[in-house]
Amino acid sequence: MKMIIAVVQDKDGTKLADALVKNEFRATKLASTGGFLKAGNTTFMIGVSDDQVERVMDIIKENCKSRNQLVAPVSPMGGNADAYVPYPVEVAVGGATVFVLPIETFQQF
Ligand code: 2BA
């Protein structure tokens, strides 16, 4: 068994959740925040058998698009000066960042 952890953009979250349900996969959707942009994103936890990993990867690819996002300058006032970005920069935010972890035990009570 594997745990697929997928960080996706909020804009794709509902579409991906619907596609997973339609294909009879079980998933947990968490509200998350990107460490770099400090903007909301969505993290899915999807527990699947080993032979289902590829199908879930395909569903994620089909439903999550890469987009460019402009990072506005962040004032260091009241914030961390180390994170200060003095000019707007465009970053490509991936369609999905996916981790596949082995699961030692799965139980439901
Ligand atoms: P954020 O951390 O908000 O990052 C958004 C995008 O900003 C990233 O897109 C990347 O293009 C850029 N970026 C991130 N850190 C950067 C840095 N130190 N310098 C320059 N540019 C940087 P993605 O790589 O597609 O990541 C999208 C989101 O996926 C991330 O949002 C984060 O929430 C998650 N993520 C990405 N890599 C991760 C990792 N290794 N571990 C945990 N979460 C990760």
From TrEMBL:
SUPFAM superfamilies: GlnB-like. InterPro entries: CdAMP_rec, N-reg_PII-like_a/b, N-reg_PII/ATP_PRibTrfase_C. Gene3D superfamilies: 3.30.70.120. This is YaaQ. It comes from the Bacteria. Coiled coil: none annotated.
